[in-house]
């Protein structure tokens, strides 16, 4: 039987694993700062999405700004004819120029929200968005609360079913939890970065916990070593301040040390490192829906393979916690 989760109080059933669609948007920039994951093959992206569907993945998370609209377009194309099988999540709040692929700022006004949802609907080729998420991590709470009435209007209009906030702050998550149709909080969460405070809000208000960065931007795939380098068109190659796992175009040594500390436990029972890291999140809470980024069929197959193993067993989970007790770090943001 497929491993599923309920997305908060919406009652929507989703696969316990989602697919993150940041990388399939391809390159985009904030000035000279790369914000994508390098060049991408759209045909391979479509094949990867179709393979995810074949393997039981039903939850797809993107944002309007990923590739300045390109991720939504590719996802919409890949999901054409499959809409009744999937749950689509996207985000708004950033402004961008599609012609230059530049992030230009942000707009938290109700007017921009109404325009943004229509643009996302067109790009995704759908009549409704299942989960619509505010994409401004540290937006002041009063400004964010000022959007709740508009979001409720969009629910009533049938353009969105439910909404949430992509934020790493528990007080912000709490503010949105009061919205009648809020059903999920997306937050940075991985074996290297616990998120107990935001998870506690999800527990208190019966919200889904959508986990971005579940593989620590690739560190938990095991493919990086101290000598690995990333290109200048990859967000990890010229890492912004919030991206702690990479520095000067290389994996940060202190984070590689943490991966090494838990590798043996996470790979027990025949799991790959990535599958063990996903299993840790499922063992951490029955609300978690990790959304590792994928842009190739091979990545999809490895991540979806974690569904067959399920949550990390209690003994292994406890051992990971013991090993990392003294190593846990402060929150790290992400797009």
Kindly summarize this structure in a few lines.
This protein has 335 residues and is an alpha/beta fold.
What's the structural domain tally? 1
Q: DSSP strand (E) fraction?
A: 15-25%
CATH fourth-tier homologous superfamily: NADP-dependent oxidoreductase domain
CATH architecture name: Alpha-Beta Barrel
Q: What average pLDDT do the residues reach?
A: 95
Distance N to C terminus: 33 Å
> What integer value in Å does the Rg equal?
18 Å
CATH domain fold name = TIM Barrel
Low-confidence stretches: 329-333
Structural class: alpha/beta
Q: Could you state the order of secondary-structure elements as H and E?
A: EEEEEHEHEEEHEHHEHEHEEEHHEHHH
User: Major sheet: order of its strands?
Assistant: 3-6-7-10-11-12-13-16
Q: Main β-sheet, in a few words?
A: 8 strands, parallel
Shape, please?
A: globular
What's the CATH C level? Alpha Beta
Number of strands: 16
Percent helix range: 25-40%
Summed up, the helix count is 12
């Amino acid at each position: 039987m497929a491993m599923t989760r309920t997305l908060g109080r919406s009652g929507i059933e989703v696969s316990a694993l989602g697919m993150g669609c940041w990388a399939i948007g391809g390159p985009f920039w904030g000035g000279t700062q790369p914000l994508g994951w390098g060049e991408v093959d759209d045909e391979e992206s479509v094949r990867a999405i179709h393979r995810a569907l074949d393997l039981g993945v039903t939850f797809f998370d993107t944002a309007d700004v990923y590739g300045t609209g390109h991720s939504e377009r590719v996802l919409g194309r890949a999901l054409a004819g499959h809409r009744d099988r999937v749950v689509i999540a996207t985000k708004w709040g950033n402004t961008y120029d599609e012609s230059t692929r530049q992030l230009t700022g942000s707009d938290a006004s109700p007017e921009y929200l109404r325009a943004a949802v229509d643009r996302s609907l067109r790009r995704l080729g759908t009549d409704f968005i299942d989960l619509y998420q505010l994409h401004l991590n540290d937006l002041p709470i009063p400004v964010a609360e000022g959007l709740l009435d508009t979001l409720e209007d969009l629910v009533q209009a049938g353009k969105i079913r439910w909404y949430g906030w992509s934020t790493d702050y528990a007080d912000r998550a709490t503010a949105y939890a009061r919205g009648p149709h809020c059903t999920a909080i997306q937050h940075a969460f991985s074996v290297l970065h616990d998120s107990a405070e935001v998870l506690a809000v999800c527990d208190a208000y019966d919200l889904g916990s959508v986990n971005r960065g579940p593989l620590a931007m690739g560190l938990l795939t095991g493919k990086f070593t101290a000598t690995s380098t990333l290109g200048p068109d990859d967000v990890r190659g010229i890492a912004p301040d919030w991206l702690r796992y990479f520095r000067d175009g290389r994996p940060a040594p202190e984070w590689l040390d943490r991966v090494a500390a838990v590798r043996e436990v996470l790979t027990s029972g025949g799991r790959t490192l990535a599958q063990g890291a996903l299993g840790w999140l499922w063992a951490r809470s029955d609300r978690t829906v990790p959304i590792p980024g994928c842009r190739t069929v091979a990545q999809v197959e490895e991540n979806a393979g974690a569904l067959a193993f399920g949550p990390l067993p209690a003994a292994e989970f406890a051992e990971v916690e013991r090993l990392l007790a003294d190593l846990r770090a402060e929150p790290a943001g992400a797009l």
